[in-house]
Design goal:
about 180 residues; alpha/beta; four-stranded mixed β-sheet; about 40% helix; globular
């Protein structure tokens, strides 16, 4: 991987705290929610060679700002993702199927497994959600257990915050 092509930026004061984004070329490599401390230091944990504030990062951050403000709740689905080398076909199908779930809607782990072509693989879906490198863009917060919310790497409070945010914006998405 060419480290010089990694770009980073952050957005503060969102409903989920500081959001850090890291791009490889023009595709999202990693998104971190509720970043504590210095975002520059957190980005340097990913790569010492990351650069800040370039045009592509600024456009991605603007998409996040518009998502959080309700101006464009569907904008996350248009962002490009740089999937990890060696990702399995099934995991790719899981992530791509999940990106089709509209903001504010939810799907169970089992339903998502079926959408990705493997009914009965709910645990594998759970693992994919836990290892999701770009939450919100791959909206793992929209995946719930059949008997409740399930889990969320950022914690259930963040999951609830994101679902409430999206549900409050659904009328905008349908009207606008």
């Amino acid at each position: 991987m060419e480290r010089s092509r990694l770009q980073a930026g952050w957005l503060e004061d969102t409903p989920v705290g500081t959001v850090l984004v890291v791009l490889k070329n023009i595709s999202l490599l990693e998104v971190r929610l509720n970043v504590e401390g210095d975002p520059v230091a957190r980005a340097k944990e990913i790569s010492e060679h990351v650069v800040f504030g370039h045009g592509t990062v600024n456009r991605v951050l603007e998409a996040f700002r518009r998502y959080f403000s309700g101006e464009d709740p569907l904008g996350m689905s248009t962002l490009c993702v740089s999937y990890p080398v060696g990702i399995t076909d099934f995991r790719l199908r899981i992530y791509e199927a999940l990106r089709t779930i509209p903001p504010g809607d939810t799907v169970s782990y089992g339903e998502l497994a079926a959408m990705a072509g493997k009914p009965g693989a709910a645990r594998a879906v759970g693992t994919a959600m836990a290892e999701n490198p770009v939450p919100i863009v791959i909206p793992c917060h929209r995946v719930v257990a059949t008997d409740g919310l399930g889990g969320f790497t950022g914690g259930l409070d963040l999951k609830k915050t994101l679902l409430r945010l999206e549900r409050s914006q659904q009328n905008f998405a349908l009207d606008g």
